[in-house]
Amino acid sequence: MGSVRVLIGTRKGAFVATADGKRQKWNLAGPFFGGWEIYHVKGSPADPNRLYASQTSGWFGQVIQRSSDGGKTWEIPGTGAGLAPMQMPSGSSNKFTYDTSEQTGKPLTTHQWYDGTQHPWEFKRVWHLEPSLTDPETVYAGVEDAALFRSSDGGQSWHELPGLRGHSSGPMWQPGAGGMGLHTIILDPRNPRRIYIAISAAGAFRTDDGGATWKPINKGLYSRYIPNPTAEVGHCVHHIAAHPSRPDVLFMQKHWDVMRSDDAGDNWHEVSGNLPTDFGFVIDVHAHEPETIYVVPIKSDGEHYPPDGKLRVFRSRSGGNEWEELSKGLPENNCFVDVLRDAMAVDRLDDCGIYFGTTGGAVYCSANSGDSWAPIAEHLPAVLSVEVQTLS
Amino acid sequence: MPRVIRVELPAHLRTLAQVDRELTVEVAGEVTQRSVLDALENRYPALRGTIRDHATLQRRPFLRFFACEQDLSLESPDAALPEPVASGREPFLIIGAVAGGQGP
């Protein structure tokens, strides 16, 4: 039957929820790293016991945590545990330094600030960790201010892929309301040299050479909040999802608008259709139906809660445009929470499970592709991210 | 002869370093903010980057350094710390500012 492990990052710690394949009775462990903001926790597809977590604080900065036993115990890579005798700990697992070396072309070091002036790149935190599909020791980190880093030693040391930040459009990137974060990393399962990323508010980019060079892929996006609504960069992309069997088909929740691309991001078209509002943050794809996608509409960019105070997921079984409301088991009134961009996930059990978490501290699971929902937990700190591992 | 310096950490850093409220580090040479923090980070590598920025070694903006009822946060990192700290009679306090934190 299999089982699932749900990895929950919150404003005040991480939690790990486990259940058997029925997904009805949950065991919740945590908080881990209590009091710290946990932006993201994700497991390695190559070794499900290997987890990575981004632990961050406005006071104390960035810490990377790693587990080798599925989240029971954690360590800061390179600070003692697992070191060979006589090997000195480095403490560099927390070190994210932008690459401005001559060898990599000295990438530009300013971007656009909120007021339109140029502002230096300043590392603030890791928003998203994306473990390699094949190597548990390799993991990518999307950071604020926007850049992509990679570790190939289990998180002990990090090196920027500077070609992205060095793209000629870099000075035109600007922070969204939550900062200039690189929040989406999609590794193409068919082509190890292709990676998609997305940045708020710069847009989506693709590399086809393993991260050396990057191409903006924002043609077809329309954003009223930038001087040229169809500009090459400057779009506030909130999240992108793809089905592993069709990595050229991308689904995007933009600041406003739900979008779709059938050619690896080269061209996008809107599929918002009959959604009650096309503002939102999350988007995901059913594990076994590549044309079935999910969003959680949010009222507006000024009112970050569901329309009518009613929490609803919307599902399209046609790859967009025609959407159906899914609300069975979800709060039907007086609900004014948000669902943040990394807070939705799907499992890969036969009857696909859908998961999402709210800023009100609830995490919901549907064990039947969204038809009905039940809470895993209801009173956690504000949920920043949800991931799920499908275990055999 | 190295000096034994007492250091007090804020709660979240105590958890991170897996230490009690007060710890001691040995400092050879002059006792300054820099030499104390160097010794602290050398002994507890998990603290690197959490008190001083990794790249600039500047104090993180929401942390303060107090000792002997004085705010030393804006003193030069190479200035000598007060004698009671250097002699181990008083602790060097690393404090999280009352304001701080930032969300997405």
Structure description:
The complex is a heterodimer of chains A (392) and B (104). With 392 residues, chain A is mainly beta. Chain A has a single domain (3-391), classed as YVTN repeat-like/Quinoprotein amine dehydrogenase (Methylamine Dehydrogenase, Chain H), CATH 2.130.10. Helix content of chain A is 1%, strand content 38%. Chain A is built from one helix and 29 strands. A four-stranded antiparallel beta sheet of chain A has the order 3-2-1-29, with no helix packed on it. Chain A has a four-stranded antiparallel beta sheet with strand order 9-10-11-12. In chain A, a hairpin with a 7-residue loop joins strand 15 and strand 16 (215-216). By secondary structure, chain B is of the alpha+beta class. Chain B has one domain: Beta-grasp domain (Ubiquitin-like (UB roll)). Chain B is 21% helix and 23% strand. Chain B contains three helices and five strands. In chain B, strands 2-1-5-3-4 form a five-stranded mixed beta sheet, covered by helices on one side. The longest helix of chain B is centred in the middle third of the chain and has 11 residues, at 33-43. Chain B starts with a strand and ends in an 8-residue tail after the last strand. The model of chain B has no long low-confidence stretch (mean pLDDT 91). The A-B interface holds A 11, 33-37, 39, 57-63, 76, 78-80, 89-92, 94-97, 124, 127, 178-179, 181, 340, 384 and B 10-13, 15-16, 41, 45-51, 53-55, 60, 62-63, 96-97, 100-104.
